[in-house]
Amino acid sequence: MSNKIKKQSLLGKTPERKKPTQAKRQRPVNQQQAREQVAQQSIPEIELKKSKSRWYTLAAVVLILLITPKPILITYEKLGMVSQSVFWPGIFGYGANLFDSTLSPRADLSRNVIYLCQDKRKPDTCQKYRVTDKSGFFAAMKKLTID
Questions:
Q1: What is the 3-state secondary structure (H, E, C) of 36-79?
Q2: CA-CA distance, 73 to 84, in Å (whole number)?
Q3: Which of 54, 81, 102, 114 could bridge to 107 as Cys pair (CB 3.0-4.6 Å)?
Q4: What is the pLDDT of residue 34?
Q5: Closest Cα partner for 118 from 105, 128, 129?
Q6: Is the model's pLDDT at 30 over the cut of 90?
Q7: Is 53 in contact with 119 (CB distance < 8 Å)?
Q8: Sheet containing strand 113-117, strands side by side
Q9: Cβ(82)–Cβ(75) below 8 Å
Q10: Computed over its alpha carbons, how large is the radius of gyration of the chain?
């Protein structure tokens, strides 16, 4: 066996090595073709970004809808007078509202009591009502759309 050792010169010519064959890309003839190729390559990336942003937006909307308080339909009475109204408890207790009344409500629905006040700062302007029935969101929406 003969071991052939190839000497390479540091400054001289070295034998050329074969490069692995790869499919050569066609170079665009002009700038317009180059722009079209770049646009075609970036379309899936743009569509992917749009679809992700749509999902994030949809998730944010669903989360907001789940977190915010929903209006309910309450039936309340005092001295035999019965009334039905749509009550929105407000966000974190601020902005509570009865949709068909100009009075300001203070509700304690766990104790089935609602106070309707002409002025919230003056307790002597409030009237106490007993809540007899509470219905959900869809009953409240039906009441709002029919009346």
A1: HHHHHHHHHHHHHHHHHHHHHHHHHHHHHHHHCCCCEEEEEEEC
A2: 7
A3: 114
A4: 66
A5: 105
A6: no
A7: no
A8: 97-98, 81-88, 72-78, 126-135, 113-117, 104-108
A9: yes
A10: 37
* pLDDT tens by residue, 10-21: 565 655 666 555
Q: Is 98 exposed, middle or buried (0-12, 13-18, 19+ CB in 10 A)?
A: buried
Q: Which residue has the higher pLDDT, 137 or 2?
A: 137
Residue 16: phi, psi to the nearest 5?
Answer: -75, 140
- Which pLDDT tens digit goes with each residue over 47-95? 667 778 888 999 999 999 888 889 999 999 999 999 999 999 988 778 8
CA distances from 13 to 9, 102, 112, 137 (A): 7, 97, 98, 86
- Any residues with CB less than 8 A from the CB of 101 and at least 6 apart, and which? 85, 116
Q: How far apart are CA 89 and CA 81, in angstroms?
A: 23
Q: Give the phi and the psi of residue 56 in degrees, each rounded to 5.
A: -65, -40
Distance CA 64, CA 102 (A): 28
Contacts of 22 (CB under 8 A, 6+ apart): none
Integer Cα distance of 105 and 118 in angstroms = 9
